[in-house]
């Protein structure tokens, strides 16, 4: 743990799986000492492939490596009274408890917010759950797919009727709901830490992943409240309640695609710069016509403008189109695969990648780095994900247990 990180003086106990792990990693990247508590034998997260060198093994899950790097790890059976008591001691020395157990689970073990915060009023107890700790849905279980459906994201994602009649809604991939919930849990924890600086008191934070997802459908909810209209899915572009907007993905000469965002807010000077650029290829059509000096004309002819671009892109490679647009301050981008984008020197220039040692394998691996550069403090991954129970002796020893006591707990299946 580096002393120059913003959360370097914080200890976080993380009791959870796929819902909490992203928030835990972000806290660790900010310098917090994050202790991940797993059941004896390790959590089910370790059984998620793909695995390093395609060898299924609980210590080789690439998913587990990614989401849990920077943390220390212990094992503990909370249903055993000795394990519950050890957990109380562990949390008693922490600033934050981040947990994702089903609502009511920890209170039933005497480990709820009233008990733990009663013993330590400065504790920030963050419960991150699918639908919150209260309400008729509190006991419902959910997956990332369920959250994308119930939260509203899928209603806005998919193909429009012109291109794919009766097409179903489509969920974005990559565990979006867990990331959304994790980000809001981080915001809640950071806010509570700031409040504690003034009040000296911690808080209980009830963070709902469903609520967080519903909040991030952009203008879908306010538009419905204000107009009663539902958004319509549009292929490769933002959902809208109005008539279909011009397309934004165009295939180029090399078969690859460019995402060329533009809409009725495109100003006359912006459109003229596009026209002058296309004119270099003999493809400007009538975009340099004086009638486009009026904003209203751009609004009325946006579909025509889209058609001109559609005819232009097959004449240039995707990278040439992307860079030409960026040189003229247009927010366009080439649609790249991983093997195309990862070698981009931009990553190296910002020092994004980090090499992390895996001593048990005798190898070093490249990890994604910090999400920003801070002028006075550091961010980023400091260690690989923990092996199952790797830090039992270190963490429990610091709580006052000697080697014989730790071995007895291990032998009895408590840790």
Overall description:
The protein contains 17 helices and 13 strands. It is α/β, with parallel strands linked by helices and 415 residues long. The strands form four sheets. It has a six-stranded parallel beta sheet with strand order 3-2-1-4-5-6, sandwiched between helices. Strand 7 (232-234) and strand 8 (237-240) form a beta hairpin. Helix 1 crosses helix 7 (176-199) and helix 7 packs across helix 8. The chain is elongated and about 85 Å long. The mean pLDDT is 92.
Structural class: alpha/beta
Q: Can you summarize the main beta sheet? A: 6 strands, parallel
Alpha carbon gap, first and last residue: 24 Å
Summed over residues and divided by their number, the pLDDT gives a mean of 92
Roughly what fraction of the amino acids lie in strands? 5-15%
Strand order of the largest sheet: 3-2-1-4-5-6
Counted by DSSP, the helix tally is: 17
> Which consecutive residue ranges, at least 5 long each, have pLDDT under 50?
none
Give the C-alpha Rg.
26 Å
Question: Based on CA inertia axes, which overall geometry fits?
Answer: elongated
Number of strands: 13
Q: Give me the strand/helix succession.
A: EHEHEHEHHEHHEHHEEEEHHHHEHHEEHH
Helix content: 25-40%
């Amino acid at each position: 743990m580096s002393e120059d990180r913003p959360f370097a003086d914080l200890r976080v106990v993380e009791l959870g799986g796929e819902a909490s792990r992203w928030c835990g990693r972000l806290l660790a990247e900010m310098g917090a000492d994050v202790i991940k508590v797993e059941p004896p034998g390790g959590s089910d997260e370790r059984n998620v492939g793909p695995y390093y060198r395609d060898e299924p093994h609980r210590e080789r899950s690439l998913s587990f490596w990614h989401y849990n790097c920077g943390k220390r790890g212990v094992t503990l059976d909370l249903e055993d009274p000795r394990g519950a008591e050890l957990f109380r001691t562990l949390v008693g020395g922490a600033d934050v408890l981040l947990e994702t157990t089903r609502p009511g689970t920890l209170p039933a073990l005497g480990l709820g917010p009233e008990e733990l915060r009663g013993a330590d009023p400065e504790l920030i107890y963050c419960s991150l759950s699918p639908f919150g700790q209260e309400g008729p849905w509190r006991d419902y279980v959910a997956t990332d797919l369920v959250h994308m459906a119930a939260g509203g994201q899928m209603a806005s994602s998919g193909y429009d009727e012109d291109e794919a009649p009766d097409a179903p809604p489509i969920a974005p991939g990559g565990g979006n709901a867990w990331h959304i919930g994790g980000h809001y849990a981080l915001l809640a924890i950071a806010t509570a830490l700031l409040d504690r600086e003034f009040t000296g008191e911690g808080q209980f934070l009830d963070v709902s992943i469903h609520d967080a997802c519903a909040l991030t459908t952009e203008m879908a909810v306010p538009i419905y409240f204000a107009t009663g209209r539902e958004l319509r899915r549009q292929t490769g572009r933002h959902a809208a309640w109005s008539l279909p907007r011009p397309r934004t993905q165009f295939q180029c000469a090399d078969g690859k695609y460019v995402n060329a965002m533009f809409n009725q807010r495109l100003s006359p000077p912006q459109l003229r710069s596009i026209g002058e650029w296309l004119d270099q290829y003999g493809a400007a059509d009538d975009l340099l016509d004086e009638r486009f000096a009026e904003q209203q004309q751009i609004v009325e002819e946006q579909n025509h403008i889209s058609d001109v671009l559609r005819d232009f892109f097959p004449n240039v490679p995707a990278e040439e189109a992307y860079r030409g647009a960026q040189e003229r301050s247009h927010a366009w981008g080439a649609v790249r695969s991983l093997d195309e984008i990862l070698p981009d020197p931009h990553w190296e220039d910002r020092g994004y990648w980090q090499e992390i040692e895996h001593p048990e394998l005798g190898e070093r691996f490249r990890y994604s780095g910090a999400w920003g550069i801070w002028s006075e403090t550091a961010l980023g991954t400091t260690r690989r994900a923990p092996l199952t129970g790797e830090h039992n002796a270190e963490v429990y020893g610091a709580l006052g247990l000697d080697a014989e006591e730790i071995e007895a707990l291990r032998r009895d299946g408590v840790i």
